[in-house]
Fold this sequence. Notes:
Largest interface: A-B, 46 and 35 residues
Oligomer: homotrimer
Mean pLDDT of chain A: 96
Order of helices and strands of chain A: EHEHHEHHEHHHEEHEHEHEHEHHEEH
Low-confidence stretches of chain A: none
Amino acid sequence: MTYQSEKHIVHGGDYNPDQWFRTPEIWDEDMRLMKLAHINSATVGIFAWALLEPSEGEYNFGWLDTVMDKLHENGVDAILATPSGARPAWLAQKYPEVLRVREDGVRNEFGVRHNHCPTSPVYREKVRNINRLLAARYKNHPALKMWHVSNEYSGECHCGLCQQAFRSWLKKEYGNDLEALNARWWNGFWSHTYTDWDQIVSPKYRSDLEVPALRLAWRRFVSDSHIDFYKNELVPLREITPEVPVTTNFMRMYDGIDYQKFARETDLVSWDNYPAWEKGDNPGVAAETAFVHDAFRSMKGGQPFYMMESTPSIVNHHPVNKLPRPGLQELAAVQAVAHGADSVQYFQWRKCRGGHEKYHGAVVDHCGHEHNRVFQEVAHTGQMLEKLAAAAGTRCTADAAILYDWEYDWAIKGFCGFNTLRRDYLAECLRWHRPLWDRGICTDVISMDDDFSGYRLIIAPFLYMLKDGAEEKIRR
Amino acid sequence: MTYQSEKHIVHGGDYNPDQWFRTPEIWDEDMRLMKLAHINSATVGIFAWALLEPSEGEYNFGWLDTVMDKLHENGVDAILATPSGARPAWLAQKYPEVLRVREDGVRNEFGVRHNHCPTSPVYREKVRNINRLLAARYKNHPALKMWHVSNEYSGECHCGLCQQAFRSWLKKEYGNDLEALNARWWNGFWSHTYTDWDQIVSPKYRSDLEVPALRLAWRRFVSDSHIDFYKNELVPLREITPEVPVTTNFMRMYDGIDYQKFARETDLVSWDNYPAWEKGDNPGVAAETAFVHDAFRSMKGGQPFYMMESTPSIVNHHPVNKLPRPGLQELAAVQAVAHGADSVQYFQWRKCRGGHEKYHGAVVDHCGHEHNRVFQEVAHTGQMLEKLAAAAGTRCTADAAILYDWEYDWAIKGFCGFNTLRRDYLAECLRWHRPLWDRGICTDVISMDDDFSGYRLIIAPFLYMLKDGAEEKIRR
Amino acid sequence: MTYQSEKHIVHGGDYNPDQWFRTPEIWDEDMRLMKLAHINSATVGIFAWALLEPSEGEYNFGWLDTVMDKLHENGVDAILATPSGARPAWLAQKYPEVLRVREDGVRNEFGVRHNHCPTSPVYREKVRNINRLLAARYKNHPALKMWHVSNEYSGECHCGLCQQAFRSWLKKEYGNDLEALNARWWNGFWSHTYTDWDQIVSPKYRSDLEVPALRLAWRRFVSDSHIDFYKNELVPLREITPEVPVTTNFMRMYDGIDYQKFARETDLVSWDNYPAWEKGDNPGVAAETAFVHDAFRSMKGGQPFYMMESTPSIVNHHPVNKLPRPGLQELAAVQAVAHGADSVQYFQWRKCRGGHEKYHGAVVDHCGHEHNRVFQEVAHTGQMLEKLAAAAGTRCTADAAILYDWEYDWAIKGFCGFNTLRRDYLAECLRWHRPLWDRGICTDVISMDDDFSGYRLIIAPFLYMLKDGAEEKIRR
């Protein structure tokens, strides 16, 4: 389906009322504060599986019904998440296959977030089931505006199921022709010729990190396995709510997934923006952020995207987490919209009282009230965005483009030789993007598979390999 | 029982005659040299289990009888160790459960020292047995002055037995109420809600290092498990030798065990002092050492403590191990006594001819004679301490105190966010202690559980959390 | 047998026609280019096992017949390799015991090169078999000049078979007397006394890295296990081709194998020379290289050695891989000959089109023709070496010697204490070699087992221990 922009800029963020289910009176306070902060959207349910399904087959949607109703009553739209980003403890306990196996060949234990095997049939089935129940329950809820599928897919799994899936993927890629694979991978080198598909194992320190073609194939497979997992999540959503647009939140230029390929499977692109302002080089950080905005805008041909997360104050995962100077948060919001974003969203609405992110910034701090700089800046940004409502859905046209292709990044990272200390594809692309940004020239960031015809200038840094047909496109 | 100071300052150290059991004539030479060095105490048997019990149930105490007799005949008191710090190879071979399991889930093999599972019923039984035999045999020996239980407890074990023990510990801590644990740990975050105690596993890279409350609970449990192991060692000692005081040697401000809690289970506190003189900043190193002396003195309300180990020359575990300048060793001895120590003891009496510590300093070097600077300095220190005999058992009274609490250290290390590069609780406490030390103000180092009433000044750096009742104490 | 020098300097290198078996027409182009490059030797078959034996017991020697014939027809001698350096995938799949077990106790999976257990009876049998077939087939081939056994032996294995082999090795070393081992290793320390040979395990992070004598014994065993593996390879070669000299290529002063001991089992010594010119300190790098040349020349009493590998341009395994300045490659060739080498050989003849070393320099670059600097420099070097033919087989006599002994290096690396930051045996030996090199004084690099009598000066840096008889030799 095609995403239709709202008539306003979306202003919201991650809202985790499930963490306060023991004190629901705070939900009313949330509504009061959202109004004050000019919030019009809330992303709910991202990590709520344990509360939605406290034990296998036992469901608890009452709290979410209440929250959805409250949001709607208070003029706040809901972006509803599927909860696959973190599984309940009972699920990991009963079906260990849903957890990942590391490079060392040993399965993880319960814990952290992104820790699921993307191949596991059990996990896929359990995810489809909870997604189906969510879609069926809220398909007609007036608050429901969009699906936020899972959260920041990432990582990889080396379990036996994934090894088999990798072999199947390779068979398809090489037309079931092992000799063709041997020839293209140059497996005569170091006696690496395979004579049986089962001899192929994922590249890791215990097997082999020194076969560039194997590493590249594995990166492609891992990326595809996340996309395939996502498509499995979509099955009930498309079936039950065909008119609700679907997105998943990307992480900057994260190198584990080919976002350009993934973007094609979404209705709109969204990403989580955490600039490292604490580096001190504000123009440099702003230019990097501009590059990423440009990249996500370009992934769907200039269609508006969402800035699904950003911090209203500090983060917790940088080495030093400093509060940005007054006004910087608002400037970053305007930058997003100027680059084509239809939203300014925060992680998180209310700071958690415990857990790993208890010191990650939020609109509502531990103090719980609105009387501080961060809250007031968010409210001010909300007012400002209301004035910019006309910008929603607009597009910008670029004359210039930087060629950035995930597969190049993987290939460049995967070989041995030359200058290993300064072989950084992204840094090189940023270096070429910067002068255009300095001059205010609107620039797309495109892949080798995109249409080259509309640009007056295409810069292709570190053009390491050419995909089929690319040479001809460049010559034209 | 209450520890009664000797009428003199104890001057001695670790004595390992078991390493020379093949050449017992060297024991007589030891006696001659101890006299020359003004030694009046020797700590024996610390790692002697393999010689005491060469195979399961076969005992060999003859050599220790001889050594104990020789010590007494030569006016040297014995501090007798329990040998649990290192198990014999046969014990590890026959009962692998006595060895630790690492974070990766795999059990260690035989080797090194502190490598025992503190939960293992087999190891606890074997330790009680050898301790019982030692106590029974030497209870009336005139040389026996004190028990030195094990050696520098440290580390942790992740085996199945320890996982079960951790769950039992948690059940007790949370009144068997899993919902209370979920609420206090804020487990709604990232769907971490437990529905079965067996879902809880120790925090490690393979499970989860991102739950601050789990990490803090694990630190408390590990600390308690060492204390509990120690109390198991005490059973036969208290029963058979109720009048012999008991200590165990602590390691500076080692963060793996809450020494303030552990100290309550000892008759007197002792610690191993290895200042990093090679840093070059002698005043800084001396100030740090003063802080640690103050901390150990404060743990039992100002009662004299023992400096159980210190090097008479170099150590072997610093990056660069330099011989201190002439006189520095004696100065360090006086510093200990001035801060409330009743002893000046060395590791080690005679330098080993092999093994990991063959280049660790000793009173008697590889040359084997008394004609060198180190030996002469030790002898001179011994004479000096004889003149200071009146200082034994004296106490100093502090008007100022620094609040240092092991649980704060754990909590501060366990969260994510803010400035991760300069979040060092101990360094912060040292920074506040230094000006008091520079001015010669006697300062205690106390925990949140101690009595605050006697001080004119209490400095509480990095006051990260308040235990029950603490707020009221501070206000008073 | 005794190695007889050729009447010319050998000029050649690693030639891997097996990587181009799908396009054998390139082999004729190779012959044309070898003539242009003044190449007179080619090392073939190093990693060709998968092509020679595509499945168990199925052999394919046709391609090698053709290559051997072509070489001979074109006046190029063949140095034939045994292929044990990399096993076929089917072999690893069918017999997992041929793969190594790491320190963590888990067996590797298929991949990389040097990944075989040196103890595995299966692997030893399979290697003898393929070696026997190679020897039988080419024993009378006129191109065959020398055996190149395996490739750059290295690493270690901690599998059960190796643990048993280690214990057998120790039993032999200590006359089956465990008490003697306990006494010499000073195992009374930390209760490390063994009462059963099976209690002994290889030193590793999971067992014990803190027993210097165990570490030294393990290093000796590992070194011997490689030599023993090599001797197993030799069985069919000596039997079938007693007149063909045998070598294996060493790696600089690689510390995992006692090359001085290994050299005695070879007919001539050869080594792979990859100076780190990119460091910028050309005289320093040249001096280091001179030391290594001197060491390998001295291993067989001054007999000429081969420089079996060197790069004609860049390598791929340094952090920064820069093309040396014009002429430097030729200078390095002359340096080798001047220090006693009978050969100047390259890795590799033709740059691979894929695999880990696709960007490692070669005589023939990816462009495939002779019209570039690297190729022309190689050709020029070839011409120059033809003029130096009279130097083949000549010897130099040294008045000075540096004592460098692998066992000292192991012992020095294996203890704890003193200055751990600057304890580098090789660096210390280089420091003493440098002034002699600066003055053009021909210097041998000898072991403690060598004859000391012919030298006017012997420098013995860091003389950490004395082997039996050494003291007397030094006094004489």
